[in-house]
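User: tokens in, sequence out, please.
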């Protein structure tokens, strides 16, 4: 096997490869899959390196993306790349981006990269990866709640919820809040993803959204309810709105949740999700 950067010549075999692993790699796929088309990213956005058979260029077994922000995301098949292949991939990655921020993906895949990377991991968050295969339509209603689908102009209204969600679920250690970046990303999410939010007497109290769209799955993230409104079924109610939309589009849903978040795991299992693997984010100390 040899390592090649993804180019137009590898587009079709790469597409065949990533379709198989759609459910476990939406964070990767959503960066290259737009409006039903596979888009090879420019160097300003990311680079992708593939393990390709030397005798059969149609045979791609493994791939790694490195984003301009320093996030490494692998998609490995059941036939993991050898340590030598991973070293070659990392050598190419470090030529493009010498400061790595995070390794994100299936735990077994990220551990292989972490083992070969010269930097040490400063912290790790472990998640359960869950998948929904129900195609179920939900009809339950809570009359006291007003539910709306967000548009770009609603980003400012949802800002405080998004900020609280990031502080509680995503940020590690003393990482600071970049409010301008959060609002910018939230506007993109409201424009390009599905975002639902709930209000009580004009107070916005909860939200859910997709944060990535793949071939057959959409990834759910940003599930957050204000603490004083929790344990009242509000997140479950909003999730049903989002899942109904995903199912109507002919897709299913995936998400990952912190291992220790038992209330969230219980919620997702009630909605038909099953744990299918382990997911992790290794934050790197450069």
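Assistant: Sequence out:
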């Amino acid at each position: 096997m040899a390592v090649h950067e993804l180019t137009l010549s590898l587009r079709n075999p790469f597409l065949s490869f990533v379709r198989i692993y759609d459910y476990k790699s939406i964070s990767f796929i959503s960066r290259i899959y737009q409006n039903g088309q596979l888009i090879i990213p420019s160097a300003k956005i990311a680079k992708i390196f593939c393990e390709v058979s030397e005798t059969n260029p149609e045979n791609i077994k493994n791939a790694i993306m490195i984003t301009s922000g320093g996030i490494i995301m692998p998609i490995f098949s059941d036939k993991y790349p050898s340590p030598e292949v991973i070293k070659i991939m990392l050598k190419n990655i470090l030529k493009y981006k010498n400061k790595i921020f995070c390794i994100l993906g299936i735990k077994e895949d990220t551990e292989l990269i972490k083992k070969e990377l010269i930097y040490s991991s400063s912290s790790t968050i472990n998640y359960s990866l869950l998948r929904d295969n129900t195609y179920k339509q939900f009809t339950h209603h809570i009359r006291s709640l007003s539910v709306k689908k967000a548009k770009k102009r609603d980003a400012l209204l949802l800002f405080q919820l998004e900020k609280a969600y990031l502080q509680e679920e995503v940020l590690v250690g003393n990482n600071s809040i970049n409010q301008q970046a959060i609002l910018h990303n939230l506007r993109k999410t409201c424009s390009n993803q599905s975002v639902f939010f709930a209000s009580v007497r004009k107070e916005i109290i909860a939200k859910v959204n997709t944060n990535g769209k793949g071939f057959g799955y959409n990834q759910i993230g940003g599930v957050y309810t204000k603490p004083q409104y929790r344990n009242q079924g509000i997140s479950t109610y909003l999730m049903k709105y989002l899942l109904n939309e995903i199912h109507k589009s002919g897709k299913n849903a995936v998400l990952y949740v912190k291992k220790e978040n038992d209330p969230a795991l219980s919620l997702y299992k009630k909605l038909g999700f099953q744990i299918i693997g382990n997911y992790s984010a290794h934050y790197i100390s450069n």
